[in-house]
Amino acid sequence: MSLNDAAETIITVQGTASDWFEAERATVSVTVSHDGPKREPVFAATTAVGAQVTAALNALEESGAVTRWSSDRVSVWSNRPWNNEGKQLAPVYYAALSASARFQDFDALSSFVEQFATVTGVTIASIAWDLTEERRLAVTTDIQTRAVQDATVKATTYARAAGLSNVTAVAIADPGMLGDAGSGGGGAMPMARGAGKMMMAMDTQGGSQLTFTPDRIEVSASVDARFLAR
Q1: 50 phi/psi in degrees, rounded to 5
Q2: Is residue 193 a contact partner of residue 215, using CB atoms and an 8 Å limit?
Q3: Which residues pair with 78 in a beta bridge?
Q4: What is the pLDDT of residue 206?
Q5: How far is residue 117 from each of residues 6, 168, 183, measured CA to CA in Å?
């Protein structure tokens, strides 16, 4: 082995980067459901309330507050429950539908939730916060670049501590793809911390109004990198 070969060292590191961004979109999931001893009233009630929800979402899409929405058809089913004495009771009928909508106007979202949150049979199942697709792509590219830069800085620090001065990247991959045991994690992806905060505020007329505090979105990335140090 030559002296030059002996002076070469392989350094493998993981680089990470993350940042926080204001939410730009909110996807609300709504369910409408009723149950009762007769099929037709249950189906009719769910259909009627479902029509109110979809009409509201259609109007919000036309106004630009909602970028897209979808709704499924009413499903109806039944079962015969048992009482605590082991006797099977008369059938109970159920009807349900679900809808989801992606809001870009958070004031309109508050009004929509306030309008339907107290309607019998309606459940606001969840609100998920996100970035626009274009914004997510742009920030993900930036965060991935910063993760590679972080790996380079780490490798340079290790090399200098070992008395070496130059590092050259020979492999960069998503975590776990360099074949090193113990590597894990994932590439860059947006993650919403929690589901946002929804508060009920009293107005001066004695009524109430829903207000939202959207979650910030954390975008993080990690990469595995191998460097040759001399």
Answers
A1: -60, -35
A2: yes
A3: 93
A4: 45
A5: 71, 58, 45
Q: How many residues does the chain have?
A: 230
- How far apart (Å, rounded) are the C-alpha atoms in residues 54 and 102? 13
165-216 pLDDT, tens digit per residue, is 899 999 999 999 998 655 555 555 555 454 455 444 434 344 455 666 788 8
Please state which of the four CATH numbers 3.20.20.140, 3.40.50.1260, 3.40.50.300, 3.30.70.2970 is assigned to the domain occupying 25-130.
Answer: 3.30.70.2970
- Could you confirm whether domain 3-22+134-229 is CATH 3.30.70.100? no
Residue 126 has pLDDT above 50, yes or no: yes
Distance of CA 126 to the CA centre of its chain: 11
Looking at per-residue pLDDT, the higher value among 62 and 190 belongs to 62
Query: Strand 66-71 to strand 9-22: parallel, antiparallel, or no bridges (unpaired)?
Result: unpaired
The per-residue pLDDT for 65 is 98
> How far apart are alpha carbons 63 and 84 in whole angstroms?
52
